[in-house]
């Protein structure tokens, strides 16, 4: 193992003991085992999945308490375990969240987000990045350019989800594309989709400030859900990012006959279902995305390193670890002024 931390060094973490209960803990600096690396966390984003974890609303089997949350993050490698290239020390990086087995049929096919070896994910079942330091398998790392903005790079996890959605939707230059929702995922989707030269890129969200931001980022126009009735059946590709009660159903209505729909939102019990008659008669192709496969991570990091993705403008609030309670309360508060919230250890 190589590293530059002295003996007796400590690392802080936010530990959620159970829903609604958290505390800051101090422990000995974690040491990477064989095949692992330790990173100094630069920034970690909070999303609705983290809020669900804190509130106890995450589906059973997809969280293990007590847990250190934090699955959207960036950092710098500061120690490596045996069997890991020592040259990684000092490199800026992010890492895939799913601890895929790498040996099942789905993993061997490249679909690491569909691993059948059992669910394990950083920040939900494994210690996450709401901490000073994080240990992950070195095989999950994606390296960033030396000059990368680590504050912005904390958004590469949701960017990888969006990159997976773009892969699934297979946009063709000149197509009409709609993005449903202008939260973090939706605004990242605008940035990736515009790189493919769509003929039209419309963003649908009830918040005018968000649709205006989407246009600033490259959308051709924005509108509210109430304004889309006349546009049903118009779009070649619809990328749903909101996860609201009606958005999966409504996204399918927006697609033309033979069109494609990709669902990336995390839906709650009671969400309005897709009309099977409309689905079959319109011959739609509907895909869903949960997390991101290795290929999607590679796409997102490549776009970030090239400057095609500029996530920094989506960040609105930053807090130290000690203010985790206030930070997580902002997420899902409904305040339109709240974009991406970061913890900065």
Could you give a quick summary of the protein structure above?
The protein is an alpha/beta fold and 345 residues long. The chain has helices at 48-55, 105-108, 150-153, 156-169, 184-194, 208-216, 247-254, 276-282, 294-306, 324-330; strands at residues 2-3, 10-18, 21-28, 36-46, 72-80, 92-95, 133-137, 141-143, 176-180, 200-204, 221-223, 235-240, 255-263, 285-288, 315-319, 340-343.
Number of strands: 16
CATH superfamily grouping of the largest domain: Medium-chain alcohol dehydrogenases, catalytic domain
Straight-line distance between termini? 24 Å
- What would you say the CATH architecture of the largest domain is? Alpha-Beta Complex
What does this structure look like?
With 345 residues, the protein is an alpha/beta fold. The chain has two domains: 2-154 and 310-343, Medium-chain alcohol dehydrogenases, catalytic domain (Quinone Oxidoreductase, Chain A, domain 1); 159-288, 3-Layer(aba) Sandwich (Rossmann fold), CATH 3.40.50.720. It is built from ten helices and 16 strands. It has helices at 48-55, 105-108, 150-153, 156-169, 184-194, 208-216, 247-254, 276-282, 294-306, 324-330; strands at residues 2-3, 10-18, 21-28, 36-46, 72-80, 92-95, 133-137, 141-143, 176-180, 200-204, 221-223, 235-240, 255-263, 285-288, 315-319, 340-343. Strands 1, 4, 5, 6, 7, 8, 15 and 16 form an eight-stranded mixed beta sheet that branches. Strands 11-10-9-12-13-14 form a six-stranded parallel beta sheet. It has a two-stranded antiparallel sheet with strand order 2-3. Strand 12 (235-240), helix 7 and strand 13 (255-263) form a beta-alpha-beta unit. Helix 4 (156-169) crosses helix 5 and helix 4 crosses helix 9 (294-306). The chain starts with a strand and ends with a strand. The mean pLDDT is 95.
């Amino acid at each position: 193992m190589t590293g530059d931390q002295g003996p007796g060094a400590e690392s802080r973490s936010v530990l959620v003991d159970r829903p609604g209960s958290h505390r800051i803990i101090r422990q000995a600096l974690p040491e990477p085992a064989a095949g692992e690396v330790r990173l100094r966390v630069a920034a970690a984003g909070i999303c609705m999945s983290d809020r669900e974890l804190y509130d106890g609303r995450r589906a059973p089997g997809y969280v293990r308490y007590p847990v250190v949350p934090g699955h959207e993050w960036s950092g710098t490698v500061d120690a490596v375990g045996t069997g890991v290239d020592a040259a990684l020390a000092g490199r800026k990086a992010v890492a895939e969240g799913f601890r895929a087995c790498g040996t099942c049929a789905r993993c061997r096919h490249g679909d690491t987000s569909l691993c059948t070896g059992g669910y394990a994910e950083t920040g939900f079942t494994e210690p996450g990045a709401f901490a000073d330091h994080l240990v992950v398998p070195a095989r999950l790392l994606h390296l960033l350019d030396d000059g990368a903005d680590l504050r912005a790079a904390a958004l590469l996890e949701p960017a990888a989800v969006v990159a997976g959605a773009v892969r699934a939707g297979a946009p063709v230059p000149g197509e009409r594309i709609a993005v449903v929702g202008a939260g973090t995922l939706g605004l990242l989707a605008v940035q990736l989709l515009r790189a493919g030269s769509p003929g039209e890129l419309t963003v649908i969200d009830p918040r005018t400030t968000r649709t205006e931001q989407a246009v600033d980022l490259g959308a051709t126009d924005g509108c509210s859900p109430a304004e889309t009735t006349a546009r049903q059946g118009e779009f070649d590709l619809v990328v749903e990012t909101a996860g609201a009660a009606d958005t999966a159903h409504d996204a399918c209505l927006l697609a033309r006959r033979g069109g494609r729909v990709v669902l990336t939102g995390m839906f709650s019990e009671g969400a309005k279902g897709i009309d099977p008659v409309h689905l079959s008669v319109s011959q739609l192709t509907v895909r869903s995305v949960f997390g991101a496969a290795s290929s999607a991570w590679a796409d997102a990091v490549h776009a970030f390193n090239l400057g095609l993705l500029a996530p920094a403008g989506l960040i609105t609030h930053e807090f130290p670890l000690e203010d985790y309670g206030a930070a997580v309360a902002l997420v899902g508060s409904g305040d339109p002024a709240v974009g991406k919230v970061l913890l900065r250890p």
